[in-house]
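Fig. S4 source data, part A: sequence.
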Amino acid sequence: MTSTAPPRLATWMLLHLMPGDHDEALPGDLLESFHAGRSSAWYCRQVLAALAAQWIRSFFRHRAVLVFAAAWATLSPAWRLLVTRLYHTGNLIGPVWRLPWPWSTVCIFGLTTAEDVLFIWTGVLICLLVLLGMFGTVKHWRVGRALTLSVAGYAIATVCDFAIALIHGPSSPSHAVDWRTLTFPGVMTNFDLWTILMRLPYLIGIALALWATVPNEERRRKLAE
């Protein structure tokens, strides 16, 4: 007997995993075809194909945001080098490490997170100012949601990087780096595995923030009409 209800997991994916700029009539069309006699396997295949197609289309529509996020994340090793040198030349990190545990660890974690979020949102603001001058669409940006997504994306990517570092352990190339010998051009043009992993949290954080705030090309055309 053919089920009268489509697979729940596929329906949930269709309703919750689609990008925000998808065709809103798609769920109804698939459900109508399912009730017309299509099988559950057909329904699942259509959902997966629709998800893949819509996300590819969404990535293409947001390509300017993704390119900017990648370019800004490329600068992140230089930012980390600058912050590290400021800490050591100004003797700012010593007093923090001398705090009783766990406050020393909490303060270091808080400072690192604040520095990284500052770097992400400096890039976001630069991008928004450029687009504001080009399109004048600031009233459509959802800055609060962007802040939440940027921090969430950065946190998830950082946890993944930390897990990878634990797997590699002391043999990771990053443990052998002496920041005193590094130069800003050198770190920005270094694309070894550990520097790529270093850039990943910034890339995800700024990409999510801009994705949530900047209208894609299709929306900008509609807003201009």
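Fig. S4 source data, part B ends here. The chain has two domains: 8-60, 62-224.
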